[in-house]
Write a structure and sequence with these properties.
Belongs to the GLE1 family. The protein has about 260 residues and is mainly alpha-helical. It has nine helices and four strands, in the order αββααααββαααα. The strands form two sheets. The protein has a two-stranded antiparallel ribbon. A two-stranded antiparallel sheet has the order 3-4. The radius of gyration is 20 Å and the shape is globular.
């Protein structure tokens, strides 16, 4: 509910503003320790990224309520946004976007960690689980860049707005595609913020969609084996439908004005 989201936002904002906040039966304040504020910014940013790789990966709609709170906090407390990006880029290098190359002397296990895989006791997580987590983080990022906290003053620009999404898309299309990963990330990104990018960039956006259909999808196909075609097929269908309709559908779970009255 919108009212619940406001409660969450106010509590986080009060904590970061140095006001005492009640949690688990006790009052806490960042002023109680010289590094209190820095610690809270760090843990809060880390938690937002965890929401991306956890909650959003399983419930795509949850990207929007989480993102709108983070967007508002980022506007008032830029440090949280900076640390959030650092956590996000480390956990999901594709959010830069960047495909890290393996350097000489780097063990396979360490390299897999750099690529974003979870490695426990030399066991690497399964590909499906890895893709799900990356998908959740990209969806959260794509929601953040288009949302503003509705009760802010709206005087300044969005601290990390749609221009960053436009840049992400352009940089992504300049990278050599990877099997599995590239098709999934492009689809996630376009499903969540394609509508907002279309409204903002118009003709330029549609030129990019044509480029994806004519040039980039064939390049993804060239590196994709027959067993990995699922996500690529969904991306192809999505791009084709959008180009035919000359419209990008609104993402599922988008927060409507009526949501804030709940």
């Amino acid at each position: 509910a919108g009212s619940k989201l406001r409660e969450v936002f106010d509590k986080i904002n009060n904590l970061l503003s140095g006001k005492p906040v009640q949690t688990e039966g006790q009052m806490v304040s960042v002023t109680q320790h010289p590094q209190g504020l820095e610690f809270v910014c760090y843990k809060l940013a880390e938690k937002f990224v965890r929401h991306g790789e956890g909650e959003v990966s399983f419930h795509h709609d949850s990207a929007f309520p989480i993102a709108v709170v983070l967007s508002g906090i980022w506007e008032l407390h830029p440090r949280v946004g900076d640390i959030f990006l650092a956590h996000l880029h480390k956990k999901c290098p594709y959010s830069v976007p960047f495909y890290p190359a393996r350097k000489e002397g780097t063990s396979m296990e360490e390299y897999q960690r750099i690529l974003g895989y979870e490695v426990h006791d030399s066991k690497v997580e399964e590909q499906d689980h890895f893709l799900k987590r990356m998908s959740g983080m990209i969806r959260l990022y794509a929601a953040i860049i288009q949302l503003r906290w509705p009760y802010g003053n709206k005087q300044g620009a969005h601290p990390h707005g749609l221009s960053y999404g436009w840049r992400w898309l352009a940089q992504m299309l300049n990278l050599e595609p990877l099997a599995d990963v590239t098709a999934m990330l492009l689809l996630d990104f376009l499903e969540v913020c394609g509508n907002a990018l279309m409204k903002q960039y118009g003709v330029q956006f549609w030129k990019t969609m044509f480029f994806i259909q004519k040039s980039y999808i064939p390049r993804i196909e060239a590196v994709t084996s027959s067993g990995q075609m699922g996500c690529l097929s969904r991306l192809k269908n999505f791009v084709q439908k959008c180009l035919q309709a000359e419209e990008i559908p609104l993402p599922k779970g988008v927060l409507t004005p009526s949501f804030w009255r709940t």
